[in-house]
Fold these 2 entries.
Entry 1:
Amino acid sequence: MDELREDTFVQDDLLEELQQEPGLRVNARAASQSERPSSGGRMSPQDLEEDGDGSGPSNVTRRTFIQGSVATGAAVSMAGGNLLQPDVLRAATEPVARTIALRVNGETHELDVEPMDTLAMVLRYGLDLTGTKLGCDRAECGACTVLIDDVPHYGCSILVHQVRGREVTTVEGLEQDGVLHPVQQAVLDEMGFQCAFCAPGFIMSMAGLVKANPNATRADAQKWLAGHICRCGDYNKILNTAERALENARAALS
Ligand code: FES
Ligand code: FES
């Protein structure tokens, strides 16, 4: 957990460096469609190689991709920080083991993965854990949030290789022995979502909050959940749910 938190500071340094770059756009739209790979957000090692002026076939260089990722991530607020790391991007052009052991919801899975597979991709399409949603696939909406060592992270913006040796928890892993997690119970109590596409991401972040600070207030929850978007605009009920989840967690502890 500490290592993942330290990553945030690496990103801060990189952001400062990149902000010196002329023309860098620090806003949520920085990684425009024209700067993204054409293969649905997945990048090949070739995409990540520097091509000098950025005029290669995909028009994506490692630098423009990192700029887009950092700028996009700077526009949202997540508890743990969860962007693609420059060191990992550099390492991604080197050979890496295709077969990894991934810990998810208390089980170990042997998986054959690509170097650039994101955690969210592997969860959904490798393990069929489709509770983890993919909305933007670019660190904007929070739908893909999972816990890594109990800290919320965007699954779309972390490579699966980065979580080897970590404990990943998805929404499917919250219920224990037939007993709903305090956050799941709160969702039922408050009926806190409309279409609920955003729900798994919010729920996982709330689960991180009740673990980190069951005495958190509604205002604390509002800040904690700031990295999520609900397209139905159901924020008031979502915050009611967060408050109820905190109450449920405190009751379970007493
Ligand atoms: S799908 Fe990951 S933040 Fe939107
Ligand atoms: S309830 Fe529909 S996106 Fe949040």
Entry 2:
Amino acid sequence: MRKICIIGISGKLGQYMTRHALDRGFEVVGVCRPDSVDKLAHFGNRITVFPGRTNDRSVIREAVRGCDGVLTVLAPWGVEGYASGTAQAVLDFAEPGARLIFSCGWHISRDGQDRYSWKLRAFTAFFGRIARALRFADLDDQVEATRRIFASDTDWTVVRGSDLEEGESEGLPVWARHVGDPLLASNLTRRTDFALFMVHALTDDRLIREAPAIVSRASASAQAHAGRTSLFA
Ligand SMILES: NC(=O)c1ccc[n+]([C@@H]2O[C@H](COP(=O)([O-])OP(=O)(O)OC[C@H]3O[C@@H](n4cnc5c(N)ncnc54)[C@H](OP(=O)(O)O)[C@@H]3O)[C@@H](O)[C@H]2O)c1
């Protein structure tokens, strides 16, 4: 892994991923909305930014050229296919054999085997309906985006984040294949560690074509299941 691209680099997750990637010595390029370029000023000339919306196919084509890995923040903004447009552009233009890592939440299910609490189901249904009615966000489009990723024959990983909080790193999160696994019960991860897992996935071939649901390794549920080392990345 030499050069990587971060799609959605100016957001909170994007900036944490940038720090972790630079720490590993990767060359970093990224895409963010033109209005957000200034948020990245503190990285100076350590990164190269391609201003543009993340579903702008011509910008994505340029940005991912020559990259060994692409980290994509999959955000369901608006109601005009932003997340699916972003994912499709990455799938279409990434270099053959590049590692493609996408972020989303636990509500995404790859195989329908996830078991959700009533609270998460109610929140997702409520938020989804309100967000769509206000034309603010479209969770169904994030589902469509991941459907396309799961169906692709690229070397993808879809990292499904729990609830997030800010704070110092607690180390690389642990993961399970399905929400509902007791390992995940604490449902909390530091945002910097979500980013750490995304960057880690670039070089962990065990995560190719997996959709890990992650949780902090310091959480009570992870500690209670610490013996299940096979699930610890
Ligand atoms: N928030 C949570 O609790 C949570 C939980 C689990 C998983 N996740 C996942 O984590 C990832 C990052 O989410 P986050 O909540 O932590 O936010 P974030 O890292 O701040 O990222 C939000 C991204 O969306 C962009 N954005 C904001 N408003 C936009 C708009 N109107 N049109 C287009 N782009 C817009 C931001 O770009 P600008 O810098 O240009 O604004 C930024 O790149 C997502 O994949 C999400 O599904 C989040």
